[in-house]
Write a structure and sequence with these properties.
Pfam family, one: Nop16
Shape: flat
Keywords: Nucleus
Family: Belongs to the NOP16 family.
Order of helices and strands: HHHHHHHHHH
Protein name: Nucleolar protein 16
Subcellular location: Nucleus, Nucleolus
Number of domains: 2
Length: 180
Amino acid sequence: MPKAKGKGRRQKYSYNLNRKRLYRSARRRAAPRIACSHIRHAWDPTKSVAQNLAEMGLAEDPNKAVPIPKKKLLGMELESNGWEQGKKIVRKPYVVNEMEYEASLPEKKSNTLSRDLIDYVRYMIQNHGENYKEMARDEKNYYQDTPKQIKRKINVYKNFYPDEYKDFIASLKQEKMDVQ
């Protein structure tokens, strides 16, 4: 069925529509989206954003929180009295303490290799040892990797799984000993 005539054209701008009122009402309805669970639990919806953050000991504006000291014309720095003047009472210090504790925890390594790449590397090492030119000519080299690319993949496998690589090499040596 054909399209209705004139539907593909650009619509004209309506000068009579009051967009300020539309945006203002949409902004009023939207609640702040808080990603951190510590802040979310300590948040008081009856207070403003600035009041909530000040109670938690967090900065609303980072530029005001850590001011850059201005230098005089002669090159001497002004006295930094800004720190003493800007101090506020922190009523919810546990929020900052919990966030600092969470930040101090070590990060888990989430780097893993695909099962296909691991199998590919193990196959190449098992059949060719460290002869990368032979590996490049192998029929299982579907992506036509060059010897340097194969070497790089093997080194990545060594770095990601050092214990597994050592066990694999030890098992290969054991098989050679059994064959002889």
